[in-house]
Amino acid sequence: MNFIKLLVCCLFLILNSSTVFAQKTFVVKANEIKASIQPTMWGVFFEDINLGADGGIYAELIKNRSFEFKKPMMGWRVLGLTKTEGDFQVLNRQDANTANPRYMHIVLNHAKHDLGLSNEGFRGMGIKKDLGYDFSFMYRQKSSDIKVHIELVSSKGEIIGKTIIQPNNTGDVWKKISASFIAKETDMKSHLNIWFEGDGVIDLDMISLFPKDTWKNRPGGMRADMIQLLADMKPGFIRFPGGCIVEGYDLSQRYQWKKTIGPIEERQLIINRWNTEIVNRPTLDYFQTFGLGFFEYFQLAEDIGAEPLPILNCGMACQFNSSELVPIEGLDPYVKDAIDLIEFANADSTTYWGKIRASLGHAASFHLKMIGIGNENWGPQYVERLKIFTKAIKEKYPDIKLVYSSGTDPEGERFNYLNSVLRKMNADIIDEHYYRRPEWFLANAKRYDNYPKDGSKVFGGEYAAQSDHTVSVNNKNTWLTALSEAAFMTGLERNADVVSMASYAPLFAHIDGWQWTPDLIWVNNLQSYGTPDYYVQKLFSTNKGTKVVPITLNNEAVTGQDSLYATSAIDEVEKELIIKIVNASVKHQNQAILLDGVKSLTTKGKLIVLKSDNLYSVNSFEHPENIAPKESEIDIKGRKILLDLSPYSLNVLRISMK
Ligand code: AHR
């Protein structure tokens, strides 16, 4: 062979090997336990952002039900011709009721179903044919000669549900009255009209409309389709209530859990900090009614089998906003909130807060095991406050694990400072956030390979690959973002002795009311769908196993060689071997997997593949499962498995070891 021929031959080989990679062999050592995977490994992060709670999982359909928004008539309009100025007045009883001061005072003068109020809902109201709806309000009246006609009106202007209420509560004491009706049509953007008939004066507050098909059919409960998507993930924990919402723009807007429990009419509304936070996506009608409060969050955690992880304000408002601090000598009430929360969640009903929990309908403990102190706080001011919280909480509840923030970024001066100081403080768990480009996620599959195995554990508390830059409204949930997260997550799971928890963020976004992208689950008034990122999260969470075992390529962990990423685990309960491999390359990759250290194997295994040829493809309301897992059976010959890994794919293999 002359030199030219040799060169052509070599070139061909090189080109050929770049279109279909030569077969490589992974080795799995199923009897070499590397680390325990915590049941909390994969969880969910919930925050009232993007209409996550109000207008989202909280199924209330009336916006501004108690007239407490900054503009009391936001969401409302008066119907018909008022006879005199002042027939509809928003009154304020601040002294008598500081939590819910405003109400609607209505003067009727021979009204004939020609005067009323209309509510537009959060972005319209999603109504379902043949479903029951519960309407209610709180009221008091001066005359008993009043009838109230309730009409649900579709976007086409047709009445698709109605009922009549005849209030009979004359006097000064507020009373609740309800009526139910069935909707005749499905409509995405209905509104509700309340017409009055009769004479006299009536005061209204807490005007409410709920569908009957809430999660677990709880009256006044949560949107079942959204919660089902969470339950399907079998999350190990649920973090709530955020996020930046914990901090508030200033301290007056911080999240205060004690104001979110008990009768909903006594829960004081505040502005949602996402109302004006994202300049390109102002959401001026975004407030927190707290119809969904801490009791409901704990109950939700229990319902979906997730450990509750409440995050509390540490005496610091958002450092991107006002940066307000509580002086150290004023920190006591904040620390007390944390201590009281543990009593509220766990103690028996002989205690003050345990008794309150029992009175709300949950005598048993919620088994709270961890709480977070601060969200994305940083600097010595944070450490100073943390020390005070830690001392007080650990003195009373030594077993409660504390989650500390490492700031907003996974590197840089602030992160390095906190990571070093918090580790010296023997932090139980350190919360790291990564909102980065897909390249960062691919490159960081090794991030935890050299982290200390002893001492503080890592909580990947918020992460999402950004198709554009962080906080850009152009971010999309593409297959590229999801695939790069999957590659990164193999590194989290492989280092389960370092990383004990992780959650994607944010969780929900309403298509007509979002501020932040990308998000795990998108909803409109009637539908919800999981993004490709959702399916990645779900696949990891529902296939996590209990112990990490090594999977190697040429004796090395698989962290990006030929764009392959892998982790493997055994599930001691199901007696199965679980292998996850990401092929982040454009090529098919023929792969042999050699299974070592297993006594017996079945001849068939289960392969779940999530893939797309197009890195920029997405799921949508029209095509919710454009990218969704597909299951098939594979053959296992002796101890060898041959796999053809599709381009751009996440592959989950389950093999019985019974
Ligand atoms: O997930 C959205 C926001 O990102 C969270 O509220 C905050 O913690 C982070 O900056």
Describe the structure.
The chain is of the alpha+beta class and 658 residues long. It has three domains: 18-36 and 548-656, Golgi alpha-mannosidase II (Immunoglobulin-like); 44-59 and 222-544, TIM Barrel, CATH 3.20.20.80; 76-211, Galactose-binding domain-like (Jelly Rolls). Helices cover 18% and strands 33% of the residues. Strands 4, 5, 6, 7, 8, 9, 10, 11 and 12 form a nine-stranded antiparallel beta sheet that branches. α4 packs across α5. It is globular. Residues 1-20 have low confidence and may be disordered. Bound molecules: alpha-L-arabinofuranose. Residues 47, 49, 242-244, 375-376, 408, 462, 505-506, 516 line the site of alpha-L-arabinofuranose.
Task: Please outline the helices and strands.
Elements lengths: L2 H17 E10 L5 E2 L7 E2 L30 E4 L8 E5 L9 E18 L5 E3 L4 E10 L4 E8 L5 E7 L9 E8 L4 E25 L12 H9 L4 E4 L29 E2 L15 E2 L5 H10 L3 E6 L19 H15 L5 H8 L10 E4 L6 H17 L4 E5 L7 H12 L4 E8 L1 H6 L13 E9 L13 H16 L4 E6 L3 E3 L10 E3 L4 E3 L1 H11 L4 E3 L1 E3 L2 E2 L6 E8 L4 E8 L4 E9 L7 E8 L18 E6 L4 E6 L3 E8 L2
Parallel strand pairs: 1-30, 3-13, 13-16, 16-17, 17-18, 18-19, 19-20, 20-21, 22-23
Antiparallel strand pairs: 1-26, 2-25, 4-6, 5-6, 6-12, 7-12, 8-11, 8-12, 9-10, 9-12, 14-15, 23-24, 25-28, 26-27, 28-29, 29-34, 30-33, 31-32, 31-34
The structure holds alpha-L-arabinofuranose (AHR).
